UniProtKB/TrEMBL annotation:
InterPro entries: KR_dom, NAD(P)-bd_dom_sf, Peroxisomal_Beta-Oxidation, Sc_DH/Rdtase_CS, SDR_fam
Record's keyword annotation contains Oxidoreductase: yes
Keywords: Oxidoreductase
Taxonomic source organism: Sulfitobacter mediterraneus
Superkingdom of origin: Bacteria
Pfam hit, one: adh_short
SUPFAM superfamilies from the UniProt entry: NAD(P)-binding Rossmann-fold domains (SSF51735)
Family indicated by similarity: Belongs to the short-chain dehydrogenases/reductases (SDR) family.
A single MF term (Gene Ontology): oxidoreductase activity
Entry protein name: 3-oxoacyl-ACP reductase
Domain Ketoreductase, first and last residues per copy: 9-197
Ribonucleoprotein found in the keyword field: no
């Protein structure tokens, strides 16, 4: 495999003023991409705003001979995102790569959670990612080239106490990826999800000091760079941290089929072990794979012929 380069490519990295986004922006620029460094410059809970962080990263990129511009929009502001995309198009004429990375935390147990904090976190992570992808979508379709990464989290994929808002927003990345992957395929738009775990200000009070040294954001960026590369995959959830990389997949068990008067809650209860038995589980490629499987199971159980 040849060296991965991004010469001639234009990338937008959101939340790139610090932490993981900064590392991704520097990594892309180092390998030749022109980079829009987006950052609203907020604190960890999304309060305040400053353009300094994004501008400092642009300075770093320029100092190493790269090309970059700063844009301070809030990713959840659709008009601001459109302006960022328009500025990138005016300056560089294309957008090849979108790294949706901006994020905030407003942790509380669900019992104490205000819905305003639930909504705010969904707004930044989910609506923000959709805004940027949506504004770039027609450009990528026209170019017949696009690479989009959404940033999820183990909190969304596996759960984390006190993060119902964040976990829901992060799990939504998988749903957005699954559909954009299908809709983008014919125009060479590939969509993946990164699930990082890194020592940044977001996690600084949660990790032991020795672990923080191992979990530097720079250990994750190589995985991100592969995901957005020309020969990168699509519809992959890549876990990354401290140099470890792994894939998360959703599987469906083989299950059972209950017919007619046998289809009762008691029968579901009685066969729950078999329903949930992972032996023979498979990955579904789209929603209708499941519908087809169920209809075929029902037809087979009845001795009917069903072509689908
Ligand atoms: P960070 O707090 O260091 O950086 C986040 C950046 O996003 C900040 O610079 C902030 O100003 C910016 N930002 C926040 N809201 C914004 C908005 N509305 N518009 C534009 N910019 C905005 O956090 P990080 O740890 O580098 O996290 C980056 C991404 O990775 C986030 O999506 C986060 O949820 C995700 N993540 C991080 C970890 C981890 O262990 N650090 C784990 C899982 C997922």
């Amino acid at each position: 495999m040849g060296e991965i380069r991004f010469g001639g490519r234009v990338a937008i990295v959101t939340g790139a003023g610090t932490g993981l986004g900064r590392s991704h922006a520097l990594g892309l620029a180092e390998r030749g991409a022109k980079v829009v460094v987006n950052d609203l410059g907020v604190s960890r809970d999304g309060s305040g705003a400053s353009s300094e962080a994004a501008e400092a990263v642009v300075d770093e990129i320029r100092a190493m001979g790269g090309t970059a511009m700063a844009h301070g929009t809030d990713v959840s502001d659709e008009a601001g995102v459109k302006d960022m995309v328009a500025q990138a198009m005016d300056a560089w004429g294309r957008i090849d790569i979108v790294v949706n990375n901006a994020g905030i935390l407003r942790d509380k147990t669900f019992a104490k959670m205000e819905m305003a904090d639930f909504r705010k976190v969904v707004d930044v992570h989910l609506i923000g990612s959709a805004n940027v992808a949506h504004a770039c979508w027609p450009i990528m379709r026209e170019q017949k080239y696009g690479r989009i990464v959404l940033t999820s989290s183990a909190s969304g994929l596996y759960g984390n106490f006190g993060q119902s808002n964040y976990g829901a927003a992060k799990a939504a990345m998988m749903g957005l990826m699954n559909v954009l992957h299908l809709e983008g395929a014919r125009d060479n738009i590939r969509v993946n999800t990164l699930a990082p775990t890194a020592a940044t200000r977001m996690t600084e009070d949660l990790l032991p000091a020795e672990a923080q040294a191992l979990l530097a954001p720079e250990t994750i960026t190589p995985g991100l760079l592969y995901l957005v590369s020309e020969d990168g995959p699509s519809r992959v959830i890549l876990g990354a941290g401290a140099g470890s990389f792994s894939q998360t997949q959703v599987y469906e068990s083989t299950g059972i089929t209950l017919m007619d008067e046998d289809n009762t809650p008691e029968a579901v209860a009685a066969q729950f072990d078999q329903i949930t038995d992972p032996a023979g589980h498979v990955e579904m490629t789209d929603a209708f794979s499941q519908t087809r499987k169920y209809a075929l199971n029902a037809a087979k159980a009845r001795g009917l012929k069903l072509e689908w």
